[in-house]
Write a structure and sequence with these properties.
heterodimer, A: alpha/beta, Pyruvate-ferredoxin Oxidoreductase, domain 3, Rossmann fold, eight-stranded mixed β-sheet, seven-stranded mixed β-sheet, 20 helices, 23 strands, 38% helix, globular, B: 288 residues, alpha/beta, two-stranded antiparallel sheet
Chain lengths: 571, 288
């Protein structure tokens, strides 16, 4: 049997079977035991039934991207084998209940373990997921006592009987695994690193939440919508500790208008939504443009149009945020690819919005929201709130003309001045005007901050070979998978460029692209929205677009193959 | 009104001569002056329409947002700084039509603000289409066969939702309007003041004279603490009662229920990120 320092485990079953609990248990205890871990899930938009799966990579090295390969599969229901299809290869170890996975469906190295009977011994089918968790833990170097103690902590507060049964279930799973290992049927050879135990383990949603806290977010108005709701839940959980107003609005229109009212009164407000919800917020984006109000929008993308695939992933809303809102005004779009970037950019979004008085978008997606991995730390020292409001005097004019096109932003009640903000075209004081010459000056004022926004744009992150002449461009959540895939391709001709900021593009982008022989843009949508933007802004043609829009994230192997093929054409 | 701190002096006002909005503006300025409110601590929030221009005509902080959207930002202003006095003011189309959903939910939240709705039963700024409160049979260039829909009854809806202060005034009676506005602004919680107001340009039916003939005071015997009675009176028409229909005292306001204000009312903008708690939060993610 092939030894792997990086082991890919998939658990697959119905909604309601507790796969998420298994994921939570395993990612935590494996990390605590010193393994690098990565976890992500794909699930159907239903509360019960269907087929959902969770991928957990356990590794001796840091891991942060999804793979197709399955080294170990735990099918928890009869539909799992079919659901995973060709990902179950001949080298895949499959551990399942012989009564659940029927002989005709068995593939890979099937090892029967009577999971159902074990669960019944403990107290019923309900405990099947904990047995599965114990089974996976038992394949790794985790002491029975450590697992037992962990289960006690994990289920604390659910009642003594439930805690006891889960501890027993985990122990039975662990014992079953040890028997498989003793019999030489399964062998895992992933080394532990004691330092990993103290790493930070968060998912994308938590990283965004931590970044917003660091950025001084003190107001969230939102309407629940997958996959953005996790950020709302995070801030609600911490509202008391951090003094945050968290309001579930009656609709997204109310949410965005509340956020603008909050910024007006001095708060640092966030709206968190997905594409369909954001479509309702467009009037608010335009209002932010006219009011010269800061606004931070977290948009966790999912496939559209309309309701689309509610629980799946896509990078299909770039054009939506680039062009949302009628009228001409500036904006800024960030797209984190790593947990560290999510913290930094969520914080930066508040500072940029406040300083330049523009809407700032943080584009994530379902895949990023739902994926966990361990990192040595989060860059809190670099993530600090910087306020840009002023105390007003008696003669304060909200829209005063200044050298840089940015009028000092006062807030009502701070100083002696009056703050007049108006959605109509307005004079320097903020009152309605139809002075058309003044209108032109106001438009120019609102647009003039674009130069500074562009000058401050974050540069792309270069990875892969240092100066390859084939450039692979990506943005947002694809970064870790792209980085790992270039390692697999191993070509000295290929360099990767990850854009954590997609608009405005950083200065020098055109020069960088012009030096390349070929430009491959990789993104999770059907037309290549970022590729279009790059061509429009740089006038440099994109050679090849690698696109995906089936609702699933790019995997490392898939990218390696498609990039290898695309780069091969350039040889 | 000499010496009123809210006067803007000689400004160009966009309303038609004889418009009911003028007396609402004067009543509001009078009420604010008599309540001794500091213009720097007053925020007027409005949507779009002729009524929604009111904030531009008195000295105050102003958030003149979008059509139908006065209440969400007004609620948020109170939530961001409970030290501010907030008035959300717009017309019937704005508050009851485009903003109808916000109207319902603002009442449920019960923020401490005063919601003044200029109700002239017509769309003025778009030149005379039906509004949610237009009476059946009212003809316009769009509703050529006359309005067929049941008129929206804002007072009954507000009382049904247990709004904490519900009143109706008539712009033809400045003194009564001012007194109602004073009570509404003083009231802790959401206050609705629906103001009957003639549109002299686009509503030739519901004129000053029509409103005089089709309204009457609620009467001294009306018990404003009796919700069912208030609801019954809110259903009355021809004539429509005027006055304070319903007052509910003592309930918690939206702001009172928000975690940041459990200990004190410091506005959000005067607070700092608690970096120690942030570090501690990230530490818990190491231990999980």
């Amino acid at each position: 049997m092939k030894k792997r320092k990086d082991f890919a485990i998939v658990l697959c079953g119905e909604a309601g079977q507790g796969i998420q609990t298994v994921e939570q248990i395993l990612t935590r205890i494996l990390k605590q035991s010193g393994y690098h871990i990565f976890g992500t899930k794909e699930y159907m938009s239903r509360v019960r039934g269907g087929s959902n799966s969770t991928l957990i990579r356990v590794s001796s090295e840091p891991v942060d991207a999804p793979v197709d390969r399955i080294d170990l599969l735990l099918p928890l229901d009869g539909k799992a084998m079919e659901h995973l299809g060709e990902r179950v290869g001949k080298n895949t170890i499959v551990i399942g209940d012989g009564d659940v996975v029927r002989p005709a469906e068995r593939r890979g190295n099937f090892h029967p373990v009577p999971l159902g009977a074990l669960a019944n011994e403990v107290g019923g089918a309900l405990y099947g997921n904990t047995i599965a968790a114990g089974l996976v833990a038992g394949l790794f170097d985790i002491a029975a006592g450590d697992l037992d103690a962990f289960m006690g902590r994990f289920f604390a507060g659910t009642g003594d009987a439930v805690v006891e049964r889960n501890r027993l279930a985990a122990a039975k799973g662990l014992q079953a695994a040890r028997e498989l290992v003793r019999a030489g049927k399964v062998r895992v050879d992933v080394k532990k690193n004691p330092g990993v135990a103290g790493d930070v383990l968060v998912n994308g949603a938590e990283a965004v939440g931590i970044g917003t806290l660091a950025g001084g977010c003190d107001f969230l108005s939102a309407y629940p919508m997958s996959p953005s709701t996790a950020v709302m839940v995070f801030l609600a959980r911490h509202a008391r500790d951090f003094g945050i107003v968290v309001e579930q609005a009656e609709d997204e229109i109310a949410a965005v208008n509340m956020a603008l009212g909050a910024w007006y009164a001095g708060a640092r407000a966030l709206v968190s939504t997905s594409g369909g919800g954001f479509a309702l917020m467009e009037e608010g984006v335009s209002l932010a443009g006219m009011l010269e109000s800061p606004l931070v929008v977290h948009l966790a993308q999912r496939p559209g149009p309309a309701t689309g695939l509610p629980t799946r992933t896509e990078q299909g809303d770039l054009n939506l945020v680039l062009y949302a809102g009628h009228g001409a005004f500036r904006r800024c779009v960030y797209a984190p690819g790593t947990l560290e970037e999510a913290v930094l950019l969520a914080c930066r979004a508040f500072n940029t919005a406040d300083r330049y008085q523009v809407p700032v978008f943080l584009l994530t997606d379902q895949y990023f929201m739902d994926s966990y991995w361990n990192v040595p730390g989060l860059p809190l020292d670099e993530a600090r709130a910087v306020r840009h409001t002023v105390r007003t005097d008696r003669d304060y004019r909200r829209y005063a003309f200044t050298g840089d096109g940015i009028s000092p932003r006062g807030i009502p009640g701070l100083g002696e001045g009056l703050v007049v903000a108006d959605s109509d075209e307005h004079d320097e004081e903020g009152h309605i005007t139809e002075d058309l010459a003044l209108r032109v000056r106001m438009v120019d004022k609102r647009l003039s901050r674009g130069r500074e926004l562009e000058r401050e744009a974050l540069p792309p992150v270069r990875y892969g070979h240092e100066d390859g002449d084939v450039l692979v461009l990506g943005w947002g959540s694809t970064f870790p998978a792209l980085r790992e895939s270039l390692g697999l391709v191993g070509s000295r001709r290929i360099s990767g460029l990850h854009f954590p900021q997609v608009h405005p593009l950083p200065p020098g982008t055109a020069e960088t692209l012009r030096r390349a022989k070929a430009i491959i843009v990789v993104e999770g949508n059907a037309t290549g929205q970022f590729a279009d933007l790059v061509e429009k802004e740089t006038k440099v043609p994109v050679t090849e677009r690698i696109l995906k829009y089936n609702g699933l994230p790019f995997t490392v192997e898939e990218l390696a193959e498609r990039i290898g093929k695309a780069a091969g054409k350039e040889e | 009104m000499a010496g009123n701190r809210f006067d803007m002096g000689d400004i160009d006002i966009a309303w038609c001569p004889g418009c009911g909005n003028f007396s609402i503006l004067e009543a509001l300025k009078g009420a604010l002056e008599e309540l001794d409110i500091d213009p720097a601590r007053l925020v007027l929030v409005s949507g779009i329409g002729q009524a929604a221009k009111t904030p531009h005509y008195l000295r105050a902080n102003v958030f003149n947002g979008l059509h139908g959207r006065a209440l969400p930002p007004a609620t948020a202003v109170r939530a961001a700084n409970p030290g501010l006095v907030v008035v959300a003011e717009s017309g019937d189309g704005d508050m009851y039509g485009e903003g109808g959903n916000h109207f319902l939910h603002a009442i449920r939240r019960n923020p401490d603000l005063t919601n003044i709705v200029h109700n002239n039963m017509v769309y003025g700024l778009t030149k005379g289409q039906a509004s949610p409160t237009s009476r059946p049979g009212f003809t316009t260039p769009v509703q050529v066969d006359g309005v067929g829909d049941e008129p929206f009854n804002p007072l009954a809806v507000a009382i049904a939702l247990n709004a904490s202060f519900v009143a109706r005034a008539f712009s033809g009676d400045g003194e009564q309007m001012k007194e109602i506005l004073k009570e509404a602004i003083r009231h802790r919680g959401y206050s609705l003041v629906d103001v009957f107001q003639p549109c002299v340009s686009f509503n030739k039916v519901n004129t000053y004279q029509w409103f005089r003939q089709n309204t009457r005071p609620l009467g001294k015997e009306h018990d404003r603490g009796n919700r069912m009675e208030a609801l019954r009176r809110a259903m009355e028409k021809d004539p429509y009662p005027l006055g304070i229909f319903y007052v509910r005292e003592g309930g918690a306001c939206f702001e009172d229920r928000l975690p940041p204000y459990e200990k004190d009312d410091t506005p959000l903008h005067l607070r700092e990120v608690d970096r120690d708690k942030l570090e501690a939060l990230v530490r818990t993610k190491r231990e999980t």
